[in-house]
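Re: that backbone. Tokens:
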């Protein structure tokens, strides 16, 4: 963001902006002064403003590419009821070629009484007006049709909406397909779970009719009308959906919660204990592990292992037979426009005890 507002120190014809501190001062000042300007006022002269077509994760985007803000025209406003108040420079969407994200410079507006603002209505001179000669008429270029894809969108209308995209957990894959207890596995592999997570996202999107240079077939390849081309030239309408203010919502925390199923504990303590006296659950369950490497990621794709020494040095792996399972839980960091989000998914791993007469 600091880079976005480092170059707006002087008038520009290309893409330059004011320092962030100046913009903040202008914005705060305008907040206090604006109620006075609801009194009778008149406009005179133009002043410098800037805009971005889209603003994503603090980056200004123009024509789908990162860019410095574009210069556009604002209007100087003077207050008749409070003549000592300074003029303001302001704009609204679509005025002077300005877009949604805008900063304006009131210093371009001369002080009241400097000669730029009108002080009275001139009195017409008496006499007989000359016969008016009508100017030659030219055949106006027809207004292009609005594309069907734009629906009922009218010129000057802005559609706006917000998308809050939640984080996701893909279906966990568990290997090997036939898991046996650590004591009966010479390789002591235990089991592993394939974890795939994605972060969330906040989107504020807008759509409006825009004039673009060239024929309809050119789409957005020849630049905006009024910037890249002007006057009586061929142009057409486009209605792109713009991510006016969008933020990624990366992962803050990912965890695996594991426990033995109630039916498994009952089977170990009754039927299995009757065959092997003294048998009881030996694993340190239930237990929760933080998943390393997921923090601050928008996508996480890795295998999580449960075996002796993993995921922690004290881990035993699946010593007990039966159903191991629980929940996989992820939480995001949140964005400047949205709170943290949480997603969870269940998983189940069946661990077999090799026996000629018993299977669980």
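Recovered sequence:
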């Amino acid at each position: 963001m600091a880079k976005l507002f480092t170059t707006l120190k002087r008038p520009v014809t290309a893409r330059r902006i004011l320092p962030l501190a100046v913009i903040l001062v202008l914005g705060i000042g305008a907040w206090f002064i604006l109620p006075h300007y609801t009194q009778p006022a008149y406009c005179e002269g133009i002043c410098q403003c800037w805009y971005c077509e889209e603003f994503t994760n603090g980056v200004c985007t123009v024509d789908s590419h990162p860019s410095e803000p574009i210069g556009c025209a604002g209007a100087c406003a003077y207050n008749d009821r409070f003549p000592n108040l300074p003029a303001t420079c302001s704009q609204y969407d679509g005025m002077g070629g300005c877009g949604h994200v805008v900063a304006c410079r009131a210093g371009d507006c001369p002080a009241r009484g400097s000669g730029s603002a009108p002080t009275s209505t001139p009195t017409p001179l008496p006499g007989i007006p000359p016969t008016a000669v009508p100017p030659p008429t030219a055949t106006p270029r027809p207004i292009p049709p609005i594309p069907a894809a734009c629906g009922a969108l009218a010129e000057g209308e802005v559609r706006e909406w917000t998308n809050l995209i939640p984080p996701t957990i893909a279906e966990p894959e568990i290997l090997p397909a036939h898991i046996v207890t650590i004591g009966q596995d010479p390789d002591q592999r235990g089991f592993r779970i394939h974890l795939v997570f994605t972060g969330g996202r906040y989107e504020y999107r807008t759509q409006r009719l825009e004039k673009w240079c060239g024929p309809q077939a050119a789409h957005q390849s020849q630049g905006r009308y009024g910037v890249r081309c002007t006057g009586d030239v061929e142009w057409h309408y486009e209605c792109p959906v713009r991510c006016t203010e969008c933020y990624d919502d990366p992962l803050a925390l990912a965890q695996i919660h594991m426990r033995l199923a109630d039916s498994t504990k009952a089977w170990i303590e009754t039927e299995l204990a009757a065959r092997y006296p003294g048998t009881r659950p030996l694993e340190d369950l239930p237990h929760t592990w933080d998943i390393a490497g997921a923090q601050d990621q928008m996508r996480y794709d890795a295998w999580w292992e449960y075996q002796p020494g993993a995921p922690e040095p004290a881990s035993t792996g699946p010593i007990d037979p039966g159903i191991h399972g629980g929940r996989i839980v992820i939480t995001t960091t949140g964005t400047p426009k949205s709170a943290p989000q949480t997603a969870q998914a269940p998983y189940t791993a069946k661990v077999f005890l090799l026996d000629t007469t018993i299977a669980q």
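Residues 1-40, 115-128 have pLDDT under 50 and may be disordered. DSSP finds two helices and 21 strands in the chain.
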